[in-house]
């Protein structure tokens, strides 16, 4: 796990060594354990690497790495967890290895099988592979986009890096805000686009190939093409999901340094922790981490977001030591500037608690965290997905039992939200009160669904790869997954999850911590998208399949807990107390008040009124205010900052 960067001067000019070193130095936080640069193509190409040493920590694991044949150079960010098995297969083909890490295996696999090796990899990555013989540069990203890769391509030069901030240090690159993407962020669309003009993020499951003849992009992975037959019985489905999760954890325990878990207390992270314990107890794991029985918990004492009690239940069941780190507004107020600089995006301060927790993990000597990201989008953890399933399903008349089941599940998940409709439907069935309540509730929900569809259409993950006919065929295949399955597929691949993965990569790697995600093992993902909708949400439970799979492993109060708290800092609570003065100062900045992209005077008046009344901030007011402040900060501070070269 590292930071990578590279420059290829297609105009024939050599790359200055100081240029590539400065470009990569902006990523030093991602790789505090080493650095390297290699020049090729008569000095016209430079590959750089900042190393976070997790496997094969000695000199034999240093990058950029040359293949044994001398033909290929690789700079690589990520982990391929099944490298032990791949190494054995390659050794039987005659390959010999100098070290014992995954990078050398990835390089040999690409030399042996070419791009077909990608489907053999179980892991997360972004990499650049240089073919010295063919003068060919291949950029690749993992199936689901766990690891980022930003690319700036022109006729003169192609440059790439793991984070946007590197491009502020790239000679000849004009750092200019993309106004369209900026406006989209402020309108609530976070699914796609890059805030700097002239930069794209390579789409998940895609490759980009550069030769002197031009640039070619293609999609090497589509989850729809890897769906499979599953058992009809829910108990058998749960048994298979459990086996897949435990094996995903077994593979992700491979490390030469201690690992831990960032534990929120929710269903996903608690399931991962308890599955880790079960996988370790089963034995048979090659290259297991020297230590893994630690969990780090972000506590928010005195706020509704504090899930410490639930986290401690999971830690006790898993037999791990729980390190509880309490965070208050006073603790994190001095960290806001550093957080926003590292975040390099627009979106408020919701992840500042997670960002601070990863910092605490690193201070405690932990550089790898096994977390529960992806479960909500994969297995139906959000109310929005259930709402869309109700809207797009056959309805109360055609399928009363399924519709009522979804509504009951939504009711429990949201803790009684949409109470008028839900009580009417649950208690009165198809009575007149139910119809009246539905008439009041469904129009705004329908509008919300239309906005989501429009956002996904604007920010499809692979616009350049599919023609209109192929896109229509793919949309039909997604719809065939069912009303709930289709909503989850779009959220997982195109909307919610890509944003979460980008954010948590930044939060963790800002402190040199690698995050591994067992729920995103490709085998588990393909299985989960193959089950019917009723396995995902039914009988009053969201994520029903995961709950059944964790029966006997997870503490029962956690397994049957129905409410859900997002893994966010309690900002609405803090803005009414410890961060009140900070937000007041921000909205009184003259440049903020004059900002053309938001209504500065109105936001300032809202903050003034809330402070005067001492009232609690609503979620909507919190989101709108912090979104505008973070946009202002990005435009006025982040864009102007340059990082001093190491």
Question: Which labels suit this protein?
Answer:
single chain, 646 residues, alpha+beta, Glutamine Phosphoribosylpyrophosphate, subunit 1, domain 1, Rossmann fold, six-stranded antiparallel beta sheet, globular
Strand order of the largest sheet: 2-3-1-9-8-10
Please tell me how large the radius of gyration is: 25 Å
Q: Give start-end ranges of low-pLDDT stretches.
A: 417-443, 452-461
User: What is the number of beta strands?
Assistant: 17
Tell me, what's the shape?
A: globular
Integer average pLDDT: 90
Question: If you had to describe this structure to a student in words, what would you say it looks like?
Answer:
- This protein is an alpha+beta fold and 646 residues long.
- It folds into 3 domains: 2-221, Aminohydrolase, N-terminal nucleophile (Ntn) domain (Glutamine Phosphoribosylpyrophosphate, subunit 1, domain 1, 4-Layer Sandwich); 224-568, HUPs (Rossmann fold); 577-638, no CATH class.
- The protein contains 28 helices and 17 strands.
- The strands form 3 sheets. Strands 2-3-1-9-8-10 form a 6-stranded antiparallel beta sheet, covered by helices on one side.
- A hairpin with a 5-residue loop joins strand 4 (65-66) and strand 5 (72-80).
- The longest helix has 27 residues, at 432-458.
- Mean pLDDT is 90; it is low at 417-443 and 452-461.
């Amino acid at each position: 796990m590292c930071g990578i960067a590279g420059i290829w001067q297609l105009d024939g000019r050599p790359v200055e060594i100081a240029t590539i070193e400065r470009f990569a130095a902006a990523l030093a936080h991602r790789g505090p354990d080493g650095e390297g640069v290699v020049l090729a193509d008569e000095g016209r190409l430079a590959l750089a690497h900042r190393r976070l040493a997790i496997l094969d920590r000695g000199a034999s694991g240093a990058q950029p790495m040359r293949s044994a044949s001398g033909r290929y150079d690789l700079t690589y960010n990520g982990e391929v967890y099944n490298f032990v098995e791949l190494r054995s297969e390659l050794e039987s083909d005659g390959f010999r290895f100098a070290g014992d890490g995954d990078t050398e295996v990835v390089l040999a696999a690409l030399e042996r099988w070419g791009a077909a090796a990608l489907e053999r990899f179980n892991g997360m990555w972004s990499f650049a592979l240089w073919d010295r013989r063919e003068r060919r540069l291949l950029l690749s990203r993992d199936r689901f986009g766990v690891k980022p890769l930003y690319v700036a391509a022109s006729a003169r030069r192609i440059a790439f890096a793991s984070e946007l901030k590197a491009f502020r240090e790239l000679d000849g690159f004009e750092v200019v805000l993309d106004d369209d993407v900026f406006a989209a962020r402020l309108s609530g669309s976070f699914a796609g686009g890059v805030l700097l003009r002239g930069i794209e993020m390579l789409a998940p499951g895609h490759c980009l190939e550069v030769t002197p003849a031009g640039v070619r992009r293609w999609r090497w992975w589509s989850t729809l093409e890897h769906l499979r037959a599953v058992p009809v019985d829910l108990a058998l489905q749960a048994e298979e999901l459990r086996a897949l999760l435990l094996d995903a954890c077994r593979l992700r325990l491979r490390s030469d340094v201690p690992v831990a878990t960032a534990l929120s207390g929710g269903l996903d992270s608690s399931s991962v922790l308890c599955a880790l314990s079960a996988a370790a107890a089963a034995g048979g794991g090659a290259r297991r981490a020297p230590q893994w029985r630690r969990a780090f918990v972000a506590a928010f004492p005195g706020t509704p977001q504090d899930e410490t009690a639930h986290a401690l239940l999971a830690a006790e069941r898993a037999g791990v030591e729980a390190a509880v780190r309490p965070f208050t507004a006073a603790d994190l107020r001095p960290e806001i500037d550093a957080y926003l600089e590292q975040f390099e995006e627009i979106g408020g301060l919701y992840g500042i608690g997670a960002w601070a927790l990863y910092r605490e993990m690193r201070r405690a000597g932990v550089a790898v965290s096994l977390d529960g990201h992806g479960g909500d989008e994969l297995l139906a953890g959000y109310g929005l997905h259930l709402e869309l399933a109700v809207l797009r399903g056959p309805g109360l008349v055609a399928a009363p039992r399924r519709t009522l089941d979804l509504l009951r599940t939504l009711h429990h998940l949201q803790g009684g939200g949409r109470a008028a409709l839900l009580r009417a439907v649950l208690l009165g069935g198809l009575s007149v009160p139910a119809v009246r309540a539905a008439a009041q509730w469904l129009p705004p929900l329908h509008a919300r669904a239309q906005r989501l569809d429009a956002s996904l259409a604007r920010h499809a993950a692979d616009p350049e790869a599919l023609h209109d006919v192929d896109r229509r065929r793919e949309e039909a295949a997604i719809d065939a997954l069912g009303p709930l399955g289709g909503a989850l597929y779009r959220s997982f691949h195109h909307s919610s999850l890509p944003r979460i993965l980008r954010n948590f990569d930044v939060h963790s790697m800002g402190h040199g911590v690698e995050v591994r995600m067992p729920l995103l093992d490709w085998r588990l993902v393909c299985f989960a998208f193959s089950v019917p909708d009723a396995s995902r949400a039914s009988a009053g439970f969201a994520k029903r399949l995961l709950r059944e799979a964790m029966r006997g492993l997870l503490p029962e109060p956690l397994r049957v807990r129905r409410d859900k708290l997002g893994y966010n800092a309690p900002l609405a609570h803090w803005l009414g107390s410890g961060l009140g003065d900070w937000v007041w100062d921000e909205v009184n900045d003259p440049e903020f008040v004059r900002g053309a992209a938001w209504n500065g005077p109105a936001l300032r008046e809202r903050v003034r009124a809330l402070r005067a009344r001492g009232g609690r901030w609503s979620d909507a007011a919190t989101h709108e205010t912090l979104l505008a402040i973070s946009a202002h900060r990005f435009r006025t501070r982040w864009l102007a900052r340059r990082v001093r070269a190491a």
